[in-house]
Task: inverse folding
């Protein structure tokens, strides 16, 4: 059990819940038996005989064949092995019984192999028959080495033993007042009902109670993190009137959206406190998160501190540096000739910078000359020192490990404030669990001037002329003075050859050819459908200077079509790019497709996104693509994405293969439970941070938070 299903203790076994429940089946007449279905029949034994057969060189074996009849028809039961004589003694001609099993076919005759049965007395009532037929049989998550019925027997032994001792040693994590107030079953009752339900209502009672256990214990862990954060010291960074922020706001050529104002106020309120801000800023692609983050960084610089923005890739770091210095203008040239008196230096720090530029950037950071630094993981190297780090902004959280976040936070004299940004919309309940130690701000308004994006699936295998039309549309966009992206899953330079790699989805298994590659597609486009256009390549293994050069020329309108990998997924902002063709779109996740699509429609002209696939119409991959094409609502798409992938372990252990801490709770469907559990957990922790009055809850918390998970939360 321990090795194959990670069941090591009695507690593990009790919390290994049935995956589903089978009913023995409706009572069925023998004349109407459906093949391959579980049925229950009531019939009389007509005859029973033991036959000897040859086991193919391994001696003789015995088989018991029993013929039963119910007046409407006849069928055979068959038993093998040592127990045949036991069954022969029980199943005497004339005896009546209930027989349950899966209907099979042997020698063109229906039969039940090794059925369960219960013999009926002469006075057995119809109620007895119905009760047997409707009994719910738990089916457990099992494996080849450990069958479901073996697990059921083990659980049964444990339940009987626990009940005999009055459930001694069973820690109930829910405080009695909470359990009674919410009308939840006691834990022993819930465990009995989930493993031995008499009715479907029993299962529902048990599930509701056990979901609460998971949600509440997890939310207590997160509430304790939030409480611990409020006890840490931090330097309050209050905006200074007449400083850099006011000068920046005064030169903005547009008005901030109501959403940007509201979220900025939440951030400024957090920055003004003497414990570290921990805030998640999520918003649709193009909702203006960078603007909100920049204003927060300027406020911190006004207050005498420094701000660091951490990006997952060099392309994105360079893009942020370029767009921020452009937005700030002379305010980004502090200390330079022609710079503003309110200005500060904005420096870039990446791993591929030349030695001289890197040395200067490091010097600007340690002296405090640079108020803002934008960089990749190079920012967290040991040699990087700050004068006074006040705010860390992490872009695209899902690309950045908690260890890296933690290392950068350790660069401040006191813990700096932390703002995490993501353009992947996260359903509210997921944010409350995955990022439950962060306060959440949502930007759901797009700035004025953003254009709608039309999305269409292009079934290249079923309708090749659709793909021809797609390339015609790209040409039309270019002829109208616009630009386009073509995205491929792979580079195609040999190093990313997928041979030998594990296929990730059933569709991939069905699709034997390797994913389309940037270098191959570029060659075909230049020679064929896009001949004569200025087609360039961008991918992650190009030299950083070459990448930057291509991006600059694309942004300047000197490139018509950019054929790229997902390096353009986040942060790339070229308002003149109106069309995107995603090749082998079925190889990308729902959220990733939504991210990619957000690169077009960023200017005044409408955007177009074409999702090219060779998958057949009825496949799950096509359904996924149809869902992306049908809506621009990122929150709706993230729900679809999570429902398809399931949520993994919300404490970040999915990557390391540790079993999920959630067995009953699903963060998508159980919003009401999670919301209520968060409220209850917050109240319990505020009243008793060390859980001194809740020893059983503390025990449950220790079981949830093994060392690895505890460290994850500590760093999170």
Result:
């Amino acid at each position: 059990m321990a090795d194959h299903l990670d069941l090591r203790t009695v507690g593990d076994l009790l919390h290994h819940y049935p995956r589903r429940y089978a009913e023995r089946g409706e009572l069925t007449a023998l004349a109407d038996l459906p093949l391959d279905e579980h049925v229950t029949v009531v019939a009389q034994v007509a005859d029973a005989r033991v036959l000897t057969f040859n086991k193919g060189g391994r001696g003789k074996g015995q088989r018991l064949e029993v013929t039963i009849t119910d007046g409407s028809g006849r069928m055979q039961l068959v038993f093998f092995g040592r127990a045949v004589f036991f069954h022969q003694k029980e199943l005497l001609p004339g005896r009546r019984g209930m027989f349950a099993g899966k209907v099979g076919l042997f020698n063109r005759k229906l039969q039940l192999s090794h059925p369960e049965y219960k013999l009926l007395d002469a006075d057995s009532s119809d109620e007895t028959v119905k009760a047997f037929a409707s009994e719910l049989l738990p089916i457990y998550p099992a494996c080849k080495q450990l069958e479901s019925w073996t697990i059921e027997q083990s659980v049964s032994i444990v339940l009987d033993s626990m009940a005999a001792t009055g459930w001694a040693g069973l820690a109930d994590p829910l405080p009695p007042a909470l359990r009674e107030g919410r009308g939840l079953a006691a834990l022993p009752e819930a465990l009995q009902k989930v493993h031995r339900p008499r009715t479907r209502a029993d299962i529902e009672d048990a599930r509701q109670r056990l979901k609460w256990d998971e949600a509440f214990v997890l939310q207590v862990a997160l509430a304790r993190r939030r409480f611990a954060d409020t006890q840490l010291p931090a330097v309050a960074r209050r905006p200074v009137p007449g400083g850099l922020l006011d000068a920046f706001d005064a030169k903005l050529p547009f008005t901030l959206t109501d959403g940007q104002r509201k979220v900025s106020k939440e951030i400024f309120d957090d920055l003004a406190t003497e414990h570290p801000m921990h805030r998640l800023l999520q918003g649709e692609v193009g909702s203006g998160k960078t603007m909100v983050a920049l204003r927060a960084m300027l406020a911190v610089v006004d207050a005498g501190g420094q701000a660091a923005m951490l990006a997952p890739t060099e392309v994105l770091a360079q893009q942020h540096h370029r767009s921020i210095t452009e937005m700030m203008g002379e305010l980004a040239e502090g200390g330079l000739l022609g710079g503003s008196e309110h200005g500060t230096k904005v420096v870039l720090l990446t791993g591929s910078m030349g030695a001289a530029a890197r040395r200067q950037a490091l010097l600007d950071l340690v002296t405090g000359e640079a108020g803002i630094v934008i960089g990749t993981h190079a920012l967290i190297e040991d040699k990087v020192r700050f004068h006074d780090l006040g705010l860390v902004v992490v872009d695209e959280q899902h690309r950045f490990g908690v260890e890296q976040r933690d290392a950068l936070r350790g660069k401040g004299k006191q813990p700096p404030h932390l703002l995490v940004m993501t353009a992947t919309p996260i359903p509210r309940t997921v944010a409350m669990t995955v990022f439950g130690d962060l306060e959440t701000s949502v930007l759901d308004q797009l700035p004025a001037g953003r254009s709608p994006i039309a999305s269409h699936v292009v079934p290249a295998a079923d309708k090749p002329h659709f793909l021809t039309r797609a390339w015609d549309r790209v040409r039309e966009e270019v002829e109208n003075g616009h630009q386009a992206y073509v995205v491929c899953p792979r580079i195609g330079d040999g190093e990313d050859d997928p041979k030998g790699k594990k296929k990730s989805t059933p569709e991939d298994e069905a699709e034997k050819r390797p994913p389309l590659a940037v270098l191959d597609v570029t060659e075909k486009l230049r020679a064929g459908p896009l001949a004569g256009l200025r087609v360039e390549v961008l991918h992650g293994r190009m030299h950083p200077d070459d990448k930057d050069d291509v991006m600059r020329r694309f942004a300047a309108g000197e490139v018509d079509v950019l054929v790229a990998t997902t390096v353009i997924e986040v942060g790339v902002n070229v308002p003149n790019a109106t069309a995107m063709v995603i090749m082998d779109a079925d190889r990308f996740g729902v959220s990733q497709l939504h991210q990619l699509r957000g690169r077009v429609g960023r200017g005044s002209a409408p955007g177009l996104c074409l999702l090219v696939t060779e998958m057949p119409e009825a496949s799950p991959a096509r359904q996924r693509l149809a869902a992306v094409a049908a809506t621009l609502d990122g929150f709706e798409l993230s729900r679809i994405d999570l429902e398809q992938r399931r949520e993994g372990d919300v404490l970040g252990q999915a990557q390391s293969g540790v079993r999920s801490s959630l067995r009953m709770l699903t963060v998508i469907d159980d919003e009401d439970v999670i919301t209520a559990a968060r409220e209850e957990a917050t109240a319990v922790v505020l009243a008793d941070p060390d859980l001194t009055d809740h020893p059983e809850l503390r025990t449950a918390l220790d079981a949830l938070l093994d060392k690895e998970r505890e460290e994850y939360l500590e760093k999170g």
User: Anything to note?
Assistant: Confidence is low (pLDDT under 50) at residues 499-511, 647-659. DSSP finds 25 helices and 21 strands in the chain.
